[in-house]
Amino acid sequence: MAATKPAPDLVEVAIRKTGLEQAVMIGDSIWDCQAAARAGIQTIAVLTGGFSEQELGEAGALRVFGDAGLRRVWFTQMIQSALVAIITDAYSQFGAHALAALEMLADQTGIELADGDRQAISGQMRRLPPAPPRPRARCRRCAPA
Question: What is the model's pTM?
Fold first, then answer.
């Protein structure tokens, strides 16, 4: 890696290592927003890095959330929803789980989501490609000797 943020090098390396062509950056600084923009991706920001909502917005954040704890709750709800769908064989796109979890969290916390926010956030999630298939792990105890 040649340079650190706000240069896009770190973001580009992370995207390349995942094997994905698209991503969304979660960040808390203007440098995160700038690096993501230079790498050609959007940033969803949280107010934990000492920057104001206005500064993060001016740096290019798609949306700014005030409480980093909410991000953890949102992600947990999103994963739980996806797991329930898998277990019950009721497939939905991951972006649909992300948006449903975001809606539930906004409702529980009294955060108002504008239609533009919903569309922008869910649009970014829905553009993410599916994870590449991985070979199933073999249980060492179950494998023939």
Answer: 0.52
